[in-house]
User: Fold Globin from Novosphingobium aromaticivorans.
Amino acid sequence: MATEAPALSPYDRIGGREVLRRITDRFYDLMDTDPAYAELRAMHAPDLSPMREALAGFLSGWCGGPRGWFEANPGKCMMSMHKPFPITRQTATQWADCMSRAIADAAPEDTEVADAMAQVLGQMAKGMARD
Ligand code: HEM
Assistant:
């Protein structure tokens, strides 16, 4: 009987830690330098390096890879965690747009999983807006 190879996780398909780190770094570089994201940038602390670690760690576990961020933050929910921030449709759209550009610029080979990731993260970000 032929056995099917197990399906790869989104983490493996996107290119693992290296590509997720590339996406995260590009995301914060764009946020930091492109005036299109000025309002979003202003909501964050001056030093973005802790965010580079945190977002890369979150995305790793979220995509089915190593779960260090989730183990260090037991029970932390991304949607609830963002409730204290005054997120508007404008800043949520900036987040979604910046992430979609970062994913495209990181150029993962598997464009199907890359597009799906940009789509779902964009929907999550827009779901955080409260205006
Ligand atoms: C899918 C959407 C999003 C994801 C996956 C995400 C991810 C994260 C992560 C991992 C952290 C750090 C949490 C920690 O280490 O405790 C964080 C913090 C933060 N996020 Fe998001 N985020 C999203 C959407 C947004 C949106 C739409 C905004 C604003 C428009 C936003 C603004 C912030 C701010 C202001 C912080 C705190 C930053 C700081 O302390 O400097 N996030 N986010």
User: Anything to note?
Assistant: The radius of gyration is 15 Å.
